[in-house]
Request: fold
Amino acid sequence: MDLGIEGKWALVCAASKGLGKGCAEALVREGANVVITARGVEALEATAAELRAIGRGEVRTVAGDITTAEGRAAALAACPQVDILVNNAGGPPPGDFRNWDRDTWIQALDANMLTPIELIRSTIDAMAARGYGRVVNITSGAVKAPIGVLGLSNGARSGLTGFVAGLARSPIAARNVTINGLLPGAFDTDRLRTTLKAGAKALGQNEEAAADARRRTIPSQRFGTPAEFGAICAFLCSQHAGYLTGQNILVDGGTYPGTF
Reply:
């Protein structure tokens, strides 16, 4: 299927590795031009080299912290126009809410709620004026089924989801601008491996035993891959997804047990 996004410009945040990288790669394979951001220069440039080797769209890099005004300004300046915006940021740490002060909450909100909103605010009117725009917010399966120790993530990402629920149904929808959430479950990324390592250490297990135990909780009996996550993102960004907006797509191998 031709997704119809060849030549479009995409800004993909936190794209040097993991799910962001998977999304950027899927978009490049469809011929989109991408600006990818991350804080780590070395990993960012290594990813850019891989994407350029695909031989399709143009790839630009912006090293910096997308959660700062300076980082956002640099990323937006590198993108001639933003037709596709993929919001992504690492999740805040787990813990007990009793130990989180105001500064901890503000940091989580800045990264996982306010930064995506700022980027949407900076790009959405131009998308509407051109008659094409796709925004995909990578959030978390915890938006659908909150995880006790991830209160910071539960709160910040759910706040973003609630805000988008209204914005996606505003007059921008009639201008072919869509906003959707992509909610990952357990994917084979550095973040998952770090979480499994910490959990294994706490329980006195080895990492592979912890990973096997986690896999057994997933009906698909495996972790997802960044490539398959990216493919879903690319479809949401495509010409074919113009009638799909304000939705939260859960990609978790069947882990969530609910009907709705």
In short: The mean pLDDT is 94. The beta strands are 9-12, 33-38, 59-63, 84-87, 133-138, 177-184, 248-251.
